[in-house]
């Protein structure tokens, strides 16, 4: 199969960029002819370039024609689009359809529904754009504190909703979880076109080493920011309610708060490479993911499962779906540090059950998140898109 994968990469490499690269290598490994089309968010730094980008964000006629010519020349069997914001614009879907090529689009976040992309404002979940529309975001300058940027995004969201881009110009969407799929359906997207396919870990993990009979430490890995629940995490470990080591890995705007909270029980490790992170995970008694937003598909959880390490997660969105309580971890009320203290102490006091959850987590990884499992799901989506396109 000849597959063209498309991505507007980010200035600071993130999870979407990693997923794009992993899926490309996975498809190549299975013998497919894979071509990448990538635009980077570079040179959008002057007022002029920002205005030009903002004007073109809802639909770019220039991009439409150039992409149509490119797709028509390449003639792939399917086009898989990851991120199109801001340079590629939704015009890419119109160009692909004009070239008569089946289109698959991965819904990594909620930007096509709401300019916030996270469905979160001022540290709280906000689903106004899902239930109504996104015009409310303009006076609040949701996008980077900019009226122009926010207006541009609202125009992109509402115009493409109005003209039926998502109903008519995409053959299959990939949602990363059932929760995400339901949110898009609630926002009016076509249920029959949305498939659920999780992300995966590229390399095969060997069976993780047996955990120590005694607990060692809890681990947090992620961006040190409010939506990741860092404040809740630090509050839980403040005082003497938890007598158990916590290691924190990452960087971000709340790094100074984490550094200030470091003591005999809280250790800040800064940024670590992937091998070191996985080593820390394999030795941890459990990881803690206290996010206060919905998350897309947290790779930290899959990596933890692969290492045979259970998780304590916020009872919220995709985290609640991925971690079955009592099976591969436990839930706590999002933003509630007292409930987090309770669940941490429960895990410590029930070390035998905690270890069994780790065994269960490993089985979850083997049954759902290996490259082979993911490849078959991805190919099935491509075949569905091709069939949809032919019957349109």
From TrEMBL:
Domain Glycosyltransferase subfamily 4-like N-terminal, chain residue ranges per copy: 58-199
This protein's UniProt keywords: Transferase
InterPro entries, sorted: Glyco_trans_1, Glyco_trans_4-like_N, Glycosyltransferase_grp1
Molecular function terms, GO-annotated: glycosyltransferase activity
Glycosyl transferase family domain boundaries: 204-363
SUPFAM superfamilies: UDP-Glycosyltransferase/glycogen phosphorylase
A family per Pfam: Glycos_transf_1
Protein name: Glycosyltransferase family 4 protein
